[in-house]
Design goal:
This protein is an alpha+beta fold. Helix content is about 20%, strand content about 20%. The strands form six sheets. Strands 1, 2, 8, 9, 10, 11 and 19 form a seven-stranded mixed beta sheet that branches. The two termini are about 25 Å apart. Bound molecules: flavin-adenine dinucleotide and iron/sulfur cluster.
Length: about 525
């Protein structure tokens, strides 16, 4: 290793956490290295092909993990510059203020965070402005207080979704516009970066109009000459110095060749499964359970949300192009009849017949896949899964990843589905009246309604932060309790998962940790 391989900061992983942190630190002039196991997403027409993306899984990793029974698992995750934000639906929600405290669920306790909502709030605002979130404050009945408005107006509903919105309002609910990180300028369609297409959620944006971590953070960070990026650089291990209190070497496999780097500060941001796997793989004599794992929490408390994709079939067609504009949070904390949280209802991108084939759904009687796709409203339901010590990521001697996960807290999710069913029955149309709604159908009847374990899109919780080193691996600044120069800034730090999409919280926290690091490096 030469001195040129030594950096002030090494960031491993360039997704929501790592990419955002690189952006924050870039103007400091410090020598910063981003190590990313993937390459850039190739720009090609397949970016927008539902067949290539959903049926052929063109951009998913080909790596396999194992489940608790040792069966092969093909994780639906992506290794590229920008991480999973290249593929996300860009729904950028704040957690609710209450999510930072302890909440009693039907299935148990969702634990408190070591920091309050008020401490993260300025960084939520910073992240919303950085990622150019389009939204309207004051519509979402559970939204927490905010110190500034969104900079851009919400993305409008198309006609079918507006109709649904009006029906839901008549039924007494408070549907609202999803805050979205797509750079759509509806007033100036001719110059708008985003063209409002039907292949956003799950797809990379061919024209760079989605606010993902590469476009918004990594590319601008690389404009600073003190920042560099090495792609195809899979970090295999972290080694510690003599007293085991510092990471001294970052060991990389780059296209089969071993490379070594060192940094005054090393930040791990590989996603919740890979970050915990990296720490576990880095066990040594001083850290026998895995690096920074004296608490034995690393890899444990894996969460990924309870998610269902439900298609509401109606007699009227749904010609919507960009569907993910409406959400419902009326049942987030419960209802008059049920005193426990249920969760969040929103949409996935409009499903088509190719996408449905990948889910192997049972065809509803009297329908074809194509007809179903043309008439469905495609809902995405999210409920909180609770941190269970035994839901965990482990690695074997060869570094092979296993994920053991037993679903919990399902009653609230089932009740959320029932609430949606009830609301849909009250919808109306001029031609068919209340008969328009034909029922809710799971996108994937073959595997059951809930998404399978391989759907790790919302993975979090495996390297939790907290004030007590006996029960957490990271302190409130996301620094490892046991290692002085090691930080983790991806979704691993979550002590509980809430029930809204996680990316904005990861970004906001990375900005918060960035401020701490700037102070530390002064
Ligand atoms: C289809 C899809 C839709 C989604 N939609 C939404 C949404 O609408 N809203 C929302 O909030 N969230 C959404 N998400 C989730 C969101 O993308 C993730 O929560 C977020 O990207 C996680 O950020 P992260 O920093 O934890 O990890 P990632 O963004 O996954 O970044 C981790 C990075 O680390 C790299 N890496 C991994 N291991 C190594 C290693 N050993 N060495 C070097 N590099 C490594 C990876 O290649 C990757 O670039 C979606 C996800 C998917 C897949
Ligand atoms: S053009 Fe707009 S809607 Fe289409 S993928 Fe890009 S950001 Fe998403």
């Amino acid at each position: 290793m030469t001195t040129s391989d030594h950096y002030d900061v090494i960031i491993i992983g360039s997704g929501a956490g790592g990419g955002t942190l690189a952006y924050k630190l870039a103007p400091s002039g410090k020598k910063i290295l981003l190590l990313e196991r993937g390459d850039y997403v190739p720009r090609e027409k397949d970016n927008w092909s539902t067949r290539a993306v959903n049926l052929e899984a063109r951009y998913n990793t080909k790596e396999t993990w194992r489940d608790s029974e040792g069966k092969e698992l093909h994780p639906h995750t992506n290794y590229f510059v920008g991480g999973n934000t290249k593929f996300y639906g860009a729904a950028l929600f704040r957690l609710r203020k209450e999510d930072f405290g302890e909440i009693r669920h039907h299935g148990g306790i969702s634990p408190a965070w070591p920091i309050s909502y008020d401490e993260l709030e300025p960084y939520y605002t910073e992240a919303e402005h950085l990622y150019q979130v389009h939204g309207n404050r004051g519509e979402d009945p559970t939204e927490p207080w905010a110190s500034a408005p969104y900079k851009f107006p919400a993305v409008s509903h198309e006609q079918r979704i507006q109709h649904l919105h009006d029906d839901l309002e008549r039924a007494g609910l408070k549907p609202f516009h999803v805050p979205l990180g797509i750079r759509l300028d509806e007033k100036n369609a001719r110059t708008s970066l985003c063209i409002r297409c039907n292949t956003c959620d799950g797809h990379p944006c061919l024209i760079g109009a989605k606010s993902d971590a590469q476009t918004i953070c990594v590319d601008p960070a690389l404009q600073h000459e003190n920042v560099s990026l090495v792609t195809n650089a899979k970090v295999m291990r972290l080694e510690t110095n003599g007293n085991a209190r510092e990471v001294s070497k970052v060991i990389v496999d780059r296209n089969g060749v071993r490379e070594e780097y060192s940094g005054d500060i090393v930040v791990v941001s590989c996603g919740a499964v890979n970050s915990s796997a990296l720490l576990l793989r880095s066990a040594n004599d001083s850290h026998p359970n895995g690096l920074a794992n004296g608490s034995d929490v690393v890899g444990r408390h894996y969460m990924g949300h309870i998610n269902s994709v439900l298609m509401a079939l109606s007699k009227c067609p749904n010609p919507t192009i960009f569907q993910k504009t409406l959400a419902i949070n009326d049942f987030y904390f419960g209802s008059r009849e049920w005193d426990y949280p249920m969760g969040h209802i929103s949409f996935v991108g409009k499903l088509d017949a190719d996408t449905l084939k990948a889910g192997a759904p049972a065809v509803a009687p009297g329908w074809t896949l194509d007809l179903m796709a043309r008439h469905s409203l495609d809902f995405w339901l999210t409920s909180e899964d609770l941190p269970d010590r035994d839901n965990r990521v482990t690695v074997d001697r060869d570094g092979q990843i296993s994920v053991s996960y037993k679903l919990n807290n399902v009653e609230g999710h089932d009740r959320l589905k029932a609430q949606l069913q009830k609301a849909m029955k009250q919808t109306n149309c001029d031609i068919h009246g209340h008969e328009c709604h034909q029922g809710l159908f799971a996108r994937n009847l073959y595997l059951g309604q809930r998404l399978p374990l391989a759907a790790v899109a919302h993975q979090n919780g495996t390297v939790r932060f907290g004030d007590d080193p006996k029960t957490s691996a990271l302190d409130r600044n996301c620094k490892a309790h046991e290692v002085d120069n090691l930080y983790v800034v991806d979704a691993s730090f979550f002590p509980s998962s809430g029930a809204v999409n996680p990316a904005l919280t990861i970004m906001a926290n990375a900005l918060r940790v960035g401020d701490h690091l700037l102070e530390r490096m002064k």
